[in-house]
Amino acid sequence: MIINRDEDIKALLKNSKNIAVVGISDKQERDSFGVAKYLLSKGYNIIPVNPSLENWQGIKSYPNLSSIPKDIKLDIVDIFRKSDAVGEIVEESIKVKPKAIWMQLGVINEDAGKKASNSGMTVVMDKCIMVEHRKLKL
Fold this sequence. Notes:
Strand order of the largest sheet: 2-1-5-6-7
CATH class: Alpha Beta
Number of domains: 1
Shape: globular
Radius of gyration: 13 Å
Strand content: 15-25%
Number of strands: 7
Largest sheet: 5 strands, parallel
Mean pLDDT: 97
């Protein structure tokens, strides 16, 4: 299901713990760095996903979603990639079965969103997870 209402987003964020951040950067000026750091400070477990990083802030980074150990249950796959890369990430997500796909602000891929939704995942599109978390006062 593709969600947009505050109460649905609030429920997703309250019932999530493990967030894979796809496209995370170790450059502090990048949005992915700031958002992941914020989520970490709010008690979420961040699972960094970037094939160019060994680790992020001392946390082991994975080259892709499939390489994350199976005992780590993903709640949200937070995507910081260009919209045209989302389809491939959703394909991989279908295999690892997170509860939700979150496409960051400016990331829009309707086809991938429908595919994720049809596979049983909740989908948030074109919203910043940090902005939503702050707005909902979680």
